[in-house]
Amino acid sequence: MLSASSMKKPTLRNISRREFLAASSAALVGLGMKSERKIAGGFVNESAQLGHMLRDHKSFPAPTKKEKYPIVIIGGGMAGLSAAWHLDRRGFKDFVLLELDTQAGGNSRWGENEVSRYPWAAHYLPVPDKNETLVRELMEELGGLKDGKWEERYLCFTPQERLFIHGRWQEGIEPAVGLDARDREQFQRLDDILQNFRVTGAFTIPLERGVEHASTQPAITALDHISVTDWLRQQKLDSPYLRWYMDYACRDDYGAPATATSAWAGVHYFASRAHEEKGPLTWPEGNGWIARQLIAKLDRYIRRNSMAHHIARDKTRWRVLAGATEYAADAIIFAAPTFIAPYVFEGLAPSMTPDFQYSPWFTANLTLDRWPREHGGREPEPTSTWDNVDYNSKSLGYVVANHQSIRQHEDRSVWTYYWAMAEDTPRASRRKLLESDWNYFKELILQDLERVHPDIRDCVSRIDVMRMGHAMVRPTVGLMFDTQRRKLAEGKPLLGFDLVYFANSDLSGISIFENAQWNGVQAASNALRAISR
Ligand SMILES: Cc1cc2nc3c(=O)[nH]c(=O)nc-3n(C[C@H](O)[C@H](O)[C@H](O)COP(=O)(O)OP(=O)(O)OC[C@H]3O[C@@H](n4cnc5c(N)ncnc54)[C@H](O)[C@@H]3O)c2cc1C
Hints:
The protein has helices at about 15-30, 50-55, 80-90, 135-140, 180-200, 205-215, 220, 230-235, 240-255, 265-270, 290-300, 340-345, 425-435, 440-450, 485-490, 515-530, and strands spanning about 40-45, 65-75, 95-100, 110, 115-120, 145, 150, 160-165, 170, 300-305, 310-315, 315-320, 325-335, 360-370, 385-390, 395-400, 415-420, 460-475, 500. By secondary structure, the chain is an alpha/beta fold. The strands form four sheets. The protein has an eight-stranded mixed sheet. Strands 2, 3, 10, 11, 12, 13 and 19 form a seven-stranded mixed sheet that branches. The site of flavin-adenine dinucleotide (FAD) has 39 residues, from helix 3, strand 14, strand 18 and helix 16.
């Protein structure tokens, strides 16, 4: 296998005629000629219209056929797919999975063009430690873990992360440039505090075990009563670099600003994993690699374009209306986002489910015909960095999809660009997402990247944008120890909704693959147990 350092981007020595012409036109732009390179693209994977039909209680065509199953899974993201994986490997084959979209995978969907596969959202999995048995079992089954060793191709190549700060790139995302002694002392103090939390065993993945363990420790549960910002203030940690870093972590993992994130979740981000873990595991299509393989294994159960729009009790069974079919089910695994449940279940009031709030995001995939120059007109770096973040940007930067490619001399690339809309209220951001046209996003992205790569416009041939109004749950203040959330996550059925098991990652308050998988598998084993009684 080639090492990461052997992956080369074009240099002046091996530059082709096409690249030379492109580079010359970039130089002309610098001299004052405005480049008008045509950039193609549009919105992809739009589902807001369908979702709003549910919200607005629109009527749907009457079903034309009927099918009967002991278990129906609703939602084909990682939670729903994991529930299906569990049923299937337990030898239980009599179920279907209904997915609203044309493609299953949810936030782990992926795309592909002539350059590379690429993720639409989730793009990595931290290397699971020994306690994360379910994740390890799956990775063994999928060929990522063999005889206790991780497949090297799937461990992120170096260089992994860089931060553009004070006009230059530094390695790693934690700010290291421009700090004075006081800033450095505060980072060290934060590190010590987090290490103390790490050893308590309260911050686990999957999350529920740690919450159970922590629920009797007031010093830890108290973290859930304040925001990350207030907690930092309490700890007298006011370095602007440290504040930026913690806010970045909240936006990156939860799509929320530090002011709106529970300090418990802020600590969990750092204290739930070993300090010096290797990895992460990543693939060109991100976690789409996991989704793709699960879908291939489970394809016979999946019904695409099948939005569940009405679910009601019919004597002893549940009746699920989706597309042209009416499904009768003994048990339901509801793996779609929980906030949708009151819109589809007859008689389920919103107050019966936890008060989840969701972060709006947009992501984009940019196809680049050549590598852009760096700030100050410098040549592209000889090797790509996987994750690239700008300290002065409201975005979360970009991830290079073909970073893991073992081919040399990659001229073209796909960059996955991330923006959690954390600056405004979720409601206002959702409105902005819906009201803005593709040109708005294109300009926002290009102007953002131009600060770092001034000739980016001359390199990009296509920008596709995915808008997600309710992308992921926010770990808001008080949510982790909220009794309603914990009951649902523990698999306790809601009053009057026997044999309905919730499974989405939102139940955990922290949306990551491991929680989606855990919730899916728990719901599946609860459903199996109940129907075999
Ligand atoms: C931008 C972004 C980046 C992320 N990056 C990472 C990452 O790098 N690593 C990581 O671990 N996690 C990441 N995540 C978190 C990600 O949400 C989880 O990893 C996981 O994919 C969530 O799976 P889920 O099944 O719980 O939910 P979802 O992915 O939301 O799946 C829900 C599914 O239900 C379907 N559905 C909705 N309503 C209905 C209905 N009425 N009928 C039928 N189907 C319905 C949806 O179409 C969807 O497929 C990221 C999330 C976002 C938004």
